[in-house]
Design a protein that fits this description.
By secondary structure, this protein is of the alpha+beta class. The protein has helices spanning 51-72, 113-126; strands at residues 16-17, 21-25, 35-39, 76-80, 96-101. The chain has two helices and five strands. InterPro entries: AP-4-A_phosphorylase, Histidine_triad_HIT, HIT-like, HIT-like_sf.
Length: 127
């Protein structure tokens, strides 16, 4: 089931897909190659996604990782899910962020995403 007014349901510039999930570039990337993996059917949050669809999303995450390694040669990855507005979810269609990480993209990557986000926001504000 799809929602007529959901931008993720209507997304057509698909990078990868399987029967239950699709992947596309994030329109507000924090790193080159930042992808979103979403269920093809509309579920508002990750916790609403049925188990079989979560498995399909997980398989697509691995396929997307392989694509990003081949195309961009990242040194690592962050995988993240924001659930509901209080946690930062801005599009109410379940999605998983796959963010490639590169040597030197932040001065100290210790703490992963906790350190990357403030740095990325400062960088975006300068542009």
């Amino acid at each position: 089931m799809q929602e007529a007014n959901c931008i993720f349901c209507q997304k057509t510039d698909i990078i990868l897909e399987n029967d239950l999930a699709k992947a596309f570039w994030d329109v507000h990337p924090v790193r080159k190659g930042h992808l979103l993996v979403v269920p093809k059917a509309h579920y508002a949050t990750y916790f609403e996604v049925p188990a079989a669809t979560r498995v399909a999303m997980d398989h697509l995450l691995f396929d997307a990782r392989d694509l990003l390694i081949e195309r961009y040669h990242p040194a690592g990855f962050n995988i993240g899910v924001n659930v509901d507005a209080a946690a930062g979810q801005t599009v109410m269609h379940a999605h998983v962020h796959l963010i490639p990480r590169y040597e030197g993209d932040v001065p100290d990557p210790t703490g992963g995403i906790r350190r990357m986000i403030p740095h990325a926001v400062k960088k975006l504000l300068r542009h």
